[in-house]
Amino acid sequence: MFHGKVKAVAFDADDTLWINEPFFARVKADVAEMMSGYVSPEKFTKVLEQTQSRNIAVFGYGVKCFVISMIETANAVTSGKIKGLEIEQIIELGRSMMTNPVEPIEGVEEVLRVLGGDYKLLMITKGDVAEQQRKISLSGMSSYFDHIEILSEKDEAAYRGILSKYSINHDEFLMVGNSVKSDILPVVGIGGCAVHIPFHTTWVHEVVCEDDLCGHKYVELGSACELLPLLSVS
Amino acid sequence: MFHGKVKAVAFDADDTLWINEPFFARVKADVAEMMSGYVSPEKFTKVLEQTQSRNIAVFGYGVKCFVISMIETANAVTSGKIKGLEIEQIIELGRSMMTNPVEPIEGVEEVLRVLGGDYKLLMITKGDVAEQQRKISLSGMSSYFDHIEILSEKDEAAYRGILSKYSINHDEFLMVGNSVKSDILPVVGIGGCAVHIPFHTTWVHEVVCEDDLCGHKYVELGSACELLPLLSVS
């Protein structure tokens, strides 16, 4: 499908190459449970999400903003009655997130190994540079990539900048990722190709969707392994 | 002195291009004062510095780690008796640091404008990518630079990587910055040139120091303006 046209394949990192979101979800659930003497876990989670959304705009993505948001939320929902031990536990959970092992998503590394023979490979991720570099290093995957970029936002301008930097034609570029907003729409928007691999999809399906914005298409796959036939490699 | 040899001049950003450390110092003093009902400002500052040093190794540089460290310290020195309002104020001070205006250091912009005619210019900074990008954008200085790099650490390997990436010979590279540890020693260590401009130096002096490690020299200047005669531009 993409063979003969695509020359460079780029991968998102969090929840595309390795597991990320479940670590946040687990800590969120732990803190909501810890605060359940003050407020229901549902209420805590709702306030946390609002706080986090407001704080990301100021502090940016990542564990540190998440820790600050959890403390702020815990403080707000207890009307300032949060205990010192609870603050300490939230910070400690944040620290544990920074030292978590990196769990590659099954099958991805083999796909990178195979594709590397025929395609230029890029990793394009976003977020806190220290956190991303730690995960890149622990993943042991960096040697598969010709270029690694850590962005603060993945929008059309950011993708244009990367393609220009590495002299890649827009229509020879394929982006693979789990986020429609960050990995698919901006790439399709500048005339590139995109493969959406939703995280937590336990069933394999393939849907070709018409992109409403500019008539381009993107493909949805159940796992990275399914990329190989589309790129005529197996 | 460097003219005829150097082809690329790189600048550190925080406290070299714009003011940074005084914002941290001011917030640190404000929070120490706020906690003075529990503990002396000297004691608070000492514990904060220890906490911050331990946390930077886990969370990385920047305002967010600083906020977490201040909360953790306030919690520790009050034996968990910190009040909700105090936590809220610490987070608010952190938020204000993320929205501070960027104050360029006097004379630097003119130096960049003049050097840009004859030299390839780089900005090489370290820290939180979102924070750095905000400051780069607000500084209005990015158009002076051919390349901008935000690193997590400025060590010999990092400098080697940048020089290789942009095909710059080690002995044609000059780094300018306020930190001996990050801007001077690793650059001199790989055979580059370095100019140290200490921040908060109110008197102008120039010292040529022998580098103990490999016989290279670096120059210490009082301000960026003094770079121009060394690079035969004025």
Question: Could you characterize what this model shows?
Answer:
2 copies of one chain form a homodimer. The first copy, chain A, is an alpha/beta fold. The first copy, chain A, has 9 helices and 7 strands; from the N terminus they run E-H-H-H-H-H-E-H-E-H-E-H-E-E-E-H. Chain A has 2 domains: 8-18 and 103-230, HAD superfamily/HAD-like (Rossmann fold), CATH 3.40.50; 21-98, Orthogonal Bundle (DNA polymerase, domain 1). Chain A has helices spanning 21-34, 41-59, 63-77, 84-98, 108-115, 129-139, 156-165, 180-189, 227-230, and strands at 8-11, 120-126, 147-151, 173-177, 193-196, 207-210, 217-220. Chain A has a 7-stranded mixed β-sheet, sandwiched between helices. The longest helix of chain A is centred in the N-terminal third of the chain and has 19 residues, at 41-59. Chain A starts with 7 loop residues before the first strand and ends with a helix.
Brief summary of the model shown:
Two copies of one chain form a homodimer. Chain A is an alpha/beta fold and 234 residues long. Helices cover 45% and strands 14% of the residues of chain A.
